[in-house]
């Protein structure tokens, strides 16, 4: 839920800054890309922080080396976040991050179905997490299309 709040609040602040006269932010594309970047940086921080063990536990058991997979997906999130900031790579980064979210969704389903906790709180239900993932993917598609 924190990443969703980061996305919404940062987008609102960036758009407001554009409305108040910062020309570079007086559009939807750049504020959206920056907000998504911030969201993915926050999400990536869990891959090495207190939530790492929880993320490792979420990895479906059919996949090998969950610790390495968590590290790799965190690096992908960081690379994609940075890529969103560069006009030359923004479209590809947005598409790749959307694909990554789709690929990671089974881990969220596993967490919900097995009653895992993430940072001491129960994992979101599949419907709520699915709706959030859909919103994130929609935002990435909007960023890719602009």
Write the layout of secondary structure elements.
Blueprint: H1 2-19, H2 29-45, H3 52-58, H4 66-85, H5 90-113, E1 117-118, E2 121-122, H6 126-145
Helix pairs in contact: 1-2, 2-4, 2-6, 3-4, 4-5, 5-6
Please give a structural write-up:
The protein has one domain. It is built from six helices and two strands. It has helices at 2-19, 29-45, 52-58, 66-85, 90-113, 126-145, and strands at residues 117-118, 121-122. The protein has a two-stranded antiparallel ribbon with strand order 1-2. A hairpin with a 2-residue loop joins strand 1 and strand 2. The radius of gyration is 16 Å and the shape is elongated. The relative contact order is 0.14.
What brief labels describe this structure?
about 150 residues, mainly alpha, two-stranded antiparallel sheet, 6 helices, about 75% helix
Mean pLDDT: 96
What is the makeup of the main sheet? 2 strands, antiparallel
Task: Summarize the helix and strand pattern as letters.
Answer: HHHHHEEH
Low-pLDDT runs of 5+ residues are none
Strand content: under 5%
How much is the radius of gyration in Å? 16 Å
Determine the fraction of residues in helical runs and give it as a percent range.
Answer: over 70%
Helical stretch tally = 6
> Structural class of the secondary elements?
mainly alpha
Strand runs, count: 2
What is the number of domains? 1
Strand order in space, largest sheet: 1-2
Shape: elongated
Cα separation of the termini: 26 Å
Summary of the model, kept short:
With 146 residues, the protein is mainly α.
């Amino acid at each position: 839920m924190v990443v969703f709040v980061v996305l919404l609040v940062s987008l609102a602040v960036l758009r407001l800054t554009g409305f108040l006269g910062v020309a570079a932010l007086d559009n939807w594309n750049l504020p959206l890309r920056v907000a998504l970047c911030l969201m993915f940086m926050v999400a990536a921080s869990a891959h090495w922080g207190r939530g790492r063990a929880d993320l490792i536990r979420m990895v479906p058991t059919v996949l090998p080396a969950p610790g390495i997979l968590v590290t790799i997906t965190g690096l992908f999130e960081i690379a994609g976040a940075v890529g969103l900031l560069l006009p030359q790579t923004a479209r590809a980064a947005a598409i790749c991050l959307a694909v990554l979210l789709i690929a990671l969704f089974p881990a969220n389903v596993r967490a919900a179905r097995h009653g895992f906790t993430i940072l001491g709180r129960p994992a979101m239900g599949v419907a709520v997490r699915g709706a959030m993932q859909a919103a994130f993917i929609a935002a990435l598609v909007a960023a890719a299309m602009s």
